[in-house]
Amino acid sequence: MELKNVYQIEQAMLLGRGELFRLGIAVLFIVAIMIYAGLTTEGVQNNYLLIAAAMIGAYMAMNIGANDVANNVGPAVGSKTLTLTGAIIIAAIFEAAGALIAGGDVVGTIKKGIIDPAAIPDGQTFVWLMMAALLAGALWLNIATYYGLPVSTTHSIVGGVLGAGIAAGGMEIANWDKMGAIAASWIISPVFGGMIAALFLYIIKRTITYQKDMIGAAERVVPILVAIMAWAFGTYLILKGLKKIWKVDILTAAPTALVIAIIIYLIIRPFIKKSVATLPNAKEGVNKLFVVPLICAAALLSFAHGANDVANAVGPLAAINDSILHGGVVAKATIPLWVMLVGAIGIAIGLALYGPKLIRTVGSEITELDQSRAFCIAMAASITVIIASQLGLPVSSTHVAIGAVFGVGFLREAIKSNYAEVVAEIKHHHEGEEDHIAEDFLSAFEGASFDEKGGMLEELKKRSNKTLTKKERKGLRREYHKELVKRSAALKIASAWIITVPLSGLMAAMLYFMLRGMLL
Q: How far is CA 288 from CA 86, 284, 293, 390, 451, in A?
């Protein structure tokens, strides 16, 4: 046997060992939950259903950790602000903290009100419905993670509840108006996220990186941007992440967060001033100023995600727990500590075992990110959710974050392509002149500020008799178009979003009939 073949076999075995190790840890966690649930529910009627639900809840939590959490830390990893290990540690700690500190005591059992609980005939049917919905959502997340597709956990559960609900009570059980609003969020979420991220990136370019004195501009602008981030995240956390501890409306949350933002501005401004003295007057120097804000953003997003989205894993489990203990269909269910721990620990384990794949997808496989671009994505993630929640628009945090990544990438494409067209136009205006004249103009143009570039172009057009026709401009646009966003990734992710609700619904309906058949 050739040495090359031996090496390939060894590599395959190492890969297989890694997969077996991850699978073994996951199975051990589910078995531990099974044993714990069995011991704590001993003597409870139909406790085997609660044990099975706890195992499915643990499986769901791990899949949320593997798929959904990547949106919070992926940009920080892709921009090389955090290492993969560092990101996983930060996300695991803050996800668990968010779930346990601010995760809520009560959860709505019928997610988003998409089915009518009055149409569910009895408590046993309700338990089967919830188990089928939970398992279907977990299976779809598992499949999506395997193929490297970031999808919405909320939509997975919504599809599961809808499909199992229709299987249990017929088509009339569904609230189709709510489903229409959720379907609209497939467009609203990524478009809002993309627009806000692109806007912030344009502001950074216009006010900092397109200036001659980048570092001087950064000294003035970065503290303001960090204060805006503090205001946005403060409002976001007060409204969404701390609602268990302090429940307030936007009119209280926003002014409170504004006070925090002003204090942070006053604290960070002298630190920025000190830092810029040692940084080069280049984009790399500017990016270093966003490192600490980005790490904070990743931690805060993880905390808010843990506070809100752990309910996607443990909400149906809490509903099953309440239904078995008290009987009947429950519209609101209390979340026992052990149930919340299943969600918090499961998310941390899933993130550590299977999260790196999705973190790489979000951070580096859609478009190239640096610190300033990743900062814009984090800003979009918090601001979009705040705006949408106040307007009553249903949005997915996953769709917002991925939309923000695409927004940053498409803005870069437009800027790069436009700049290449401008350079080509400058050369066109200098046709027939000596080469060094065009080179000198381009050199001066490259070093000019944004406003000076505009003035130079206007002056060049005035003194040049050469003008480009509409057809020539279109040709330039085609010739110098640059693709900085992977179209294949955009198509795959959009397709996954579209099929999430119907596919998880179909799986839930099938699982409901299987469970009903086995348990009757």
A: 18, 7, 10, 34, 25
